[in-house]
Amino acid sequence: MKFLVHTYGCQMNVRDSEAVEALMLAAGYEKAADESEADIVIVNSCTVRDMAERKAVGKCGNLIAAKEGRGRACRPATAEAGRACRPATAAIKIVGLMGCAVKRMGTDVFKSLPKLDFAVGPRRFGAIPRLVERCLAGETRILELPDDDEVPTGMDAHAGGASFQSYVTVLLGCDNRCSYCIVPDVRGHEYSRPAREVVAEVRALAARGVKEVCLLGQSVLRYGVRNPAWGPDDPPSPGGYTEAFPRLLEALNAVDGLARIRFTSAHPKGCTDELVRAYAEFPKVCRHLHLPVQSGSDRVLKEMGRRYTRVEYLAAVAKLRAFDPEFAVTTDVIVGYPGETEEDFEATRSLMEEAGFDNAFVFKYSPRPGTRSAALPDDVPTEEKERRDQVLLADQQVRGQARNDRLVGTVREVLVEGPSLRNAARWSGRDSGNRIVVFEPSRPVRIGDLVQVRIREAHPQILIGEI
Ligand code: SAH
Ligand code: SF4
Hints:
By secondary structure, the protein is of the alpha/beta class. The chain folds into three domains: 2-144, Rossmann fold; 165-405, tm_1862 like domain (pyruvate-formate lyase- activating enzyme, Alpha-Beta Horseshoe); 411-466, CATH 2.40.50.140. It contains 13 helices and 19 strands. The protein has helices spanning 11-26, 50-68, 100-105, 109-112, 128-136, 183-187, 195-207, 244-253, 273-281, 298-304, 310-323, 342-355, 382-405; strands spanning 2-7, 30-31, 40-45, 94-99, 118-120, 142-144, 165-169, 171-172, 191-192, 212-216, 260-264, 288-290, 328-335, 359-364, 411-419, 427-430, 436-440, 450-458, 462-466. The chain has a six-stranded parallel sheet with strand order 2-1-3-4-5-6, sandwiched between helices. Strand 16 and strand 17 (436-440) form a beta hairpin. It is globular and about 60 Å long. The protein starts with a strand and ends with a strand. The site of S-adenosyl-L-homocysteine (SAH) has 16 residues, from strand 13.
């Protein structure tokens, strides 16, 4: 019996999907090469913006249509993945939906998808092999919703294979409650995994050849602040930011065979002196921080409940750059938040310039049911959101070019990821700052090698050089 998992959304979903694959393999199922040979298809959904949810639910609907049409062949030309029409060989028996959209929709999931076999929220993905078994025995429309404090099973399951990079979830849920954000409603309360569990997982990955781990949490620097389940050997967890995260970095820095440690996402309040010290002291910790700012206007930041001002945010960036001028800072920005004026938007533009971001992801505000801001009128017209999005992206292109120009002539340590997608004669990898570096391999290289690349050419999103 073969299965396939389709993933939408963030790195946390990518990680949850990988855990599901590992659990399914352990339960005796095989991974399908593509949809046409899958008996079981599981869609991992996102709900952070309306469009993200629509995509995942729509995909599920198409798969169910394909399942319903079993035995009806179609022309190969139209047999694209996700279309209701599929090759005669297709034999989908079970379609399941997992992840954030399930928790948001609850029982309504069966209103949108009446023929869905199972739906399971985040923090309950460990149940999937059992749910699949029940569906194979004839059950359908099973719904499993996790509690906000649930501790998932199977969190440390990794599918084998020789990947050089791996995600490791260290902090589940979020207790921040930013006004626009649905994440706390769907991913529940914060729970920090015990350090010894994380270290054991990373050791096992390194022993298998993984060179780089990326530690995941919505507000990952809050690791250790709240954990009802910790024992006496784990870091203390009083309120506020603690040293638990820097100490976790220290423990992971000592793992043999591991070359790099990354983590995401961060909140400026977590950019403590201890964190900067960890960057300085532990060489495996990469010099990059994804520090979502959301807005540069103090008025909007206050409405969003972000708990920092523009000045405080810029101070956090300055602290990182004072320690290392090449330190890479990337961000997320929302345009078109309710009531965002031209002046607010210009404040975001100028903050982005002052912060000198190495990269930025811009999102158009999307009201999410049940969040505080959903009660406010979504009053910035779609075309205006689009315009602001384009302006920020154009600014970032210019800024990215300028920032990367300064690196021409420097030597970057690059973890090799594989041949370049655009030009197979070149290889590609990332430097410590998570910058994509494309290079000519003057000697044979392998995926997972660390090589020194001298940069000869800069573009807004990539650096080019030779070993
Ligand atoms: N925990 C992370 C963010 C997770 S959501 C953090 O706070 O750093 C990823 C990004 O989606 C956010 O940074 C934000 O920019 C965007 N986002 C979240 N809710 C949104 C909404 N309702 N509309 C538009 N963008 C949103
Ligand atoms: Fe959402 Fe804010 Fe939590 Fe990030 S910190 S997941 S934006 S509530």
